[in-house]
Amino acid sequence: MAPLRPVSLDEIESIAIGAWILGTGGGGSPYLALLNLRRLYREGTVVSLMDPADLADEDRVAVVSNMGAPLVGQERLTDPRTIAQAVRMMEDVIGRRFRAVMSLEIGGGNSLQPFMAAALLGLPVVDADCMGRAFPEAQMTSFAIHDLQMYPLTLVDVRDNAVVVARAASWKWMERLSRTACVAVGSIASTCKAPRTGKEVKECAILYSTSKALRIGHAVRAARRAHEDPIQAVLALEGGLRLFAGKIQDVERRATEGFLRGTATIDGLDDSRGHTMRLAFQNEFAVAWLDGAPRATTPDLICVIDTVSGDAIGTETLRYGQRVTVIALPAPPILLTPKGIEHVGPRAFGYDLDFVSVFA
After folding, report:
1. Whole-number mean pLDDT of the chain?
2. Fewer Cβ atoms within 10 Å of its own Cβ: the N or the C terminal residue of the chain?
3. Structure pTM?
């Protein structure tokens, strides 16, 4: 068994950059979570990363995330105590202590939620998640694709409201019930999802995704220091494709039903001049149309990146005039299976489109 690996604050900064790219526009900006972790590290906290292979089959793992509309997350500040409280509540519900915590999604701020919980609870973070990116709904996970149990769930907000969803008839019912509670408390809350065993994590999670975010973040920072193109560094590292470059011409978005939904229109520049790309999103970018024809769809990762800095741009931070580059990154293999496409393909988001990978 490998020893737990301490994660430095510098590495957490890289994870935040990489996970913001992997978030495909969602998962919430990592900035506020990063501020919290900087403070916790100044106070002497160091969080450790755990290899999922070192979990015993019977260990229990807490799967954590913020839930809600990313736009609201920008306005209501993240507090590590709510995510820790959701984990402790879950321990009370199941009558067992957790061995470790892990991300629901390696996208955006949700990649840092387990680090905040771990800092307060003294637990390690498992190097895994169950999306390999970010998705908006509870049934859009590798655990749901594997038909694992979807309950119980605990949900806590900053006002000290707390909800337990004891049972749900299906993953979609769990999404509906928990989303209703989330909307009731203001469309942002900390959640601890159905507990997973070590065996389930090893067999059904997307493994080593925290390390992946770390590598991507390192590549972006190294390119900046060398005055090279950070976007090209990410594409080379991950085998990605550059889809479009241009300027944001229009953004239409609304926070509704606990989601941020909308579209963004980009006028082409440089090699894309004379063309237009339109992106549709539900927290995350789901479909990209080039001159009216589908160019990329979920579950391929559609990422919008600041052309100059290489920083990801979230659906809540899109604004007129931004110079952006749209890239695609490969999805984890489980999302590309027929059952995966059922859960996270374009039809799962309401688009009458067949999934055709840009990497096919």
Report:
1. 94
2. C
3. 0.95
